[in-house]
């Protein structure tokens, strides 16, 4: 059975395709492990690597950037881990970066997370060592959990005692829970409290409404509260009022003394106010003075018509007439 | 007494066959580097074993990928580890399932075919005729076939692996809404040379074992038509068993080298 040309072609295609797929697969696997690209090496010293293995991923800010190349025990407390990082990451990782052993999810394989350090730092170089941070281990977590469990057990025990006491009705809370009368009173109190609260709310609403109707912007209170100059003036007025008040007080005291003296009949005015006989005499004297003045008016009228004094009075009238005319002319 | 004698006969037969197979493989290595090189026959066998088996391997691989993913999904979902499906399926297929399933298919198809073909030639005394005419039948019939299976099986495994991964990715795409890019990124992120190189190397051994057993059974076929059938049948059984044995050895050795 001879092989035809088409069979050779198909065989050639099969072999080439298969070989290319084989190479592509090898390339994809190798590329993921930084085998086909230039790398640089950095190291970090850990106290515990938590099962980290050679070939585990190295991540920088969550991106796969390399693999763990070597894990060497330096002494009884420090393990040096060498990482092969893609050279394109050289400019991104700084010297103050921190390496931390982590895991890829809850059940994932271990890996190293490199976290950027705080603040600016020098770019890292091939062979540099970066600081490490050892996370809390599962054993530490279990120890803490053990303490927490013990505390929880104590708390539960206490809670059980409290619950028993409550169920027995001892203590204030127990009575509160078990006494039906107290419960009724409390219920009534709460009901009353509710009514009071409602009324208070209504009162506050009315007060708010009232305050809302006030024209506070134009009121003296606002001026008093907002204008410091006015406050100063008011303070001055108050000071002066205080001083005036004191003076008025003194004056009132003196007046009280004077009035007291008058009431006692001391002095001329007191005598005038208190002595009735003297008042009658003065009234009689005034009557005589009045009749004397009437007679004097009659004598003066007679004097104006006397030929000896009549010239003088005419002269006075003429002068008055001249003055009146001069005034009219001036207008 | 007959029972014990029967067991004894079987043990003796097994040891004899093991010895004969070892001698046969030794003869293969001796003849493989001795001219004349039957290159045309080698290419014809490559075509028969590579191209003719490709469709079967592709279909089987695709179904294996689909079924493995569908069967694993509920368990992984139960553990909340659905996103680990590409990693799990990728490693399973590349490291173990792909090479073994492909080898078993080839054991069924190729080993039986070789066994039947060479058995028929032995029964019809064509091999004797070739010896008489001065042609080296071992070189022409055995070396070409064994070399063809040795070289073709790794290529078939690669095709089988990729089609199985594609089948798995299809399930994840339609049932898990995972993109093909994410799926294959996860697969190649999970794979390492510790998975890929031992699987590829053992594929060569699988191919060698399948070709060698098929040729051995056919070359030493007993006379008669029953002998041909028996040769084909025992070639499949023995090749399949040896595939698992080689697989065990390969895992054992790779465990030493790669610390899996």
Automatic annotation (TrEMBL), chain A:
<dbReference type="InterPro" id="IPR052336">
    <property type="entry name" value="MlaD_Phospholipid_Transporter"/>
</dbReference>
<dbReference type="Pfam" id="PF02470">
    <property type="entry name" value="MlaD"/>
</dbReference>
<dbReference type="InterPro" id="IPR003399">
    <property type="entry name" value="Mce/MlaD"/>
</dbReference>
<feature type="domain" description="Mce/MlaD">
    <location>
        <begin position="40"/>
        <end position="117"/>
    </location>
</feature>
<protein>
    <submittedName>
        <fullName>MlaD family protein</fullName>
    </submittedName>
</protein>
From TrEMBL, chain B:
<dbReference type="InterPro" id="IPR030802">
    <property type="entry name" value="Permease_MalE"/>
</dbReference>
<feature type="transmembrane region" description="Helical">
    <location>
        <begin position="203"/>
        <end position="220"/>
    </location>
</feature>
<keyword id="KW-0472">Membrane</keyword>
<dbReference type="InterPro" id="IPR003453">
    <property type="entry name" value="ABC_MlaE_roteobac"/>
</dbReference>
<protein>
    <submittedName>
        <fullName>ABC transporter permease</fullName>
    </submittedName>
</protein>
<keyword id="KW-0812">Transmembrane</keyword>
<keyword id="KW-0813">Transport</keyword>
<keyword id="KW-1133">Transmembrane helix</keyword>
<feature type="transmembrane region" description="Helical">
    <location>
        <begin position="53"/>
        <end position="70"/>
    </location>
</feature>
<dbReference type="Pfam" id="PF02405">
    <property type="entry name" value="MlaE"/>
</dbReference>
<feature type="transmembrane region" description="Helical">
    <location>
        <begin position="232"/>
        <end position="253"/>
    </location>
</feature>
<comment type="similarity">
    <text>Belongs to the MlaE permease family.</text>
</comment>
<feature type="transmembrane region" description="Helical">
    <location>
        <begin position="146"/>
        <end position="168"/>
    </location>
</feature>
């Amino acid at each position: 059975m001879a092989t035809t040309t088409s069979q050779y072609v198909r065989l050639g295609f099969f072999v080439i395709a298969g070989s290319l797929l084989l190479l592509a697969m090898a390339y994809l696997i190798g590329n993921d492990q930084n085998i086909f690209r230039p790398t640089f090496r950095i190291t970090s010293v850990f106290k515990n690597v938590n099962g980290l293995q050679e070939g585990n991923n190295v991540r920088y800010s969550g991106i796969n950037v390399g693999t763990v190349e070597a894990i060497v025990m330096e002494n009884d407390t420090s393990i040096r881990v060498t990482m092969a990082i893609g050279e394109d990451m050289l400019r991104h990782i700084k010297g103050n970066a921190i390496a931390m052993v982590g895991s890829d999810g809850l059940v994932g394989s271990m890996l190293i997370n490199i976290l950027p350090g705080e603040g600016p730092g020098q770019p890292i170089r091939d062979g540099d060592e970066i600081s490490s941070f050892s996370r809390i281990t599962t054993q530490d977590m279990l120890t803490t959990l053990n303490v927490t469990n013990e505390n929880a057990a104590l708390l539960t025990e206490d809670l059980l005692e409290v619950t028993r006491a409550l169920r027995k009705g001892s203590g204030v809370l127990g009575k509160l829970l078990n006494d039906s009368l107290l419960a009724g009173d409390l219920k009534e109190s709460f009901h009353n409290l509710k009514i009071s609260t409602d009324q208070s709310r209504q009162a506050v609403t009315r007060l708010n409404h009232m305050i809302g109707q006030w024209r506070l912007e134009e009121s003296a209170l606002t001026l008093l509260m907002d204008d410091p100059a006015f406050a100063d003036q008011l303070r001055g007025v108050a000071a002066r009022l205080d001083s005036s008040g004191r003076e008025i007080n003194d004056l009132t005291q003196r007046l009280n003394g004077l009035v007291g003296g008058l009431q006692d009949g001391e002095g001329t005015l007191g005598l005038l106010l208190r002595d009735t006989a003297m008042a009658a005499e003065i009234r009689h004297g005034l009557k005589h003075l009045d009749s004397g003045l009437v007679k004097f008016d009659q004598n003066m009228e007679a004097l104006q018509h006397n030929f000896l004094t009549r010239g003088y009075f005419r002269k006075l009238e003429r002068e008055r007439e001249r003055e009146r005319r001069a005034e009219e002319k001036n207008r | 007494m007959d029972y014990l004698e029967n067991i004894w006969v079987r043990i003796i037969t097994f040891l004899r066959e093991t010895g004969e197979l070892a001698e046969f493989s030794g003869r293969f290595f001796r003849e493989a580097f001795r001219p004349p090189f039957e290159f045309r026959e080698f290419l014809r066998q490559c075509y028969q074993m590579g191209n003719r088996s490709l469709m079967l391997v592709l279909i089987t691989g695709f179904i294996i990928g689909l079924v493995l993913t569908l069967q694993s999904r509920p368990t992984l979902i139960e553990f909340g580890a659905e996103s680990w499906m590409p990693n799990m399926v990728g490693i399973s297929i590349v490291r173990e399932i792909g090479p073994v399933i492909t080898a078993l298919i080839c054991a069924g198809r190729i080993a039986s075919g070789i066994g039947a073909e060479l058995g028929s030639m032995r029964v019809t005394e064509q091999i004797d005729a070739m010896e008489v005419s001065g042609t080296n039948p071992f070189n022409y019939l055995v070396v070409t076939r064994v070399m063809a299976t040795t070289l073709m099986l790794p290529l078939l495994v690669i095709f089988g692996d990729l089609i199985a991964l594609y089948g798995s990715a299809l399930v994840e795409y339609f049932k898990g809404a995972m993109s093909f890019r994410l799926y294959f990124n996860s697969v190649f992120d999970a794979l390492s040379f510790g998975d890929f190189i031992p699987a590829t190397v053992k594929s060569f051994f699988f191919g060698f074992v399948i070709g060698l057993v098929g040729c051995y059974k056919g070359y030493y076929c007993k006379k008669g038509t029953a002998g041909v059938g028996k040769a084909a049948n025992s070639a499949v059984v023995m090749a399949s068993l040896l595939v698992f044995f080689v697989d065990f050895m390969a895992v054992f050795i790779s465990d030493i080298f790669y610390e899996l």
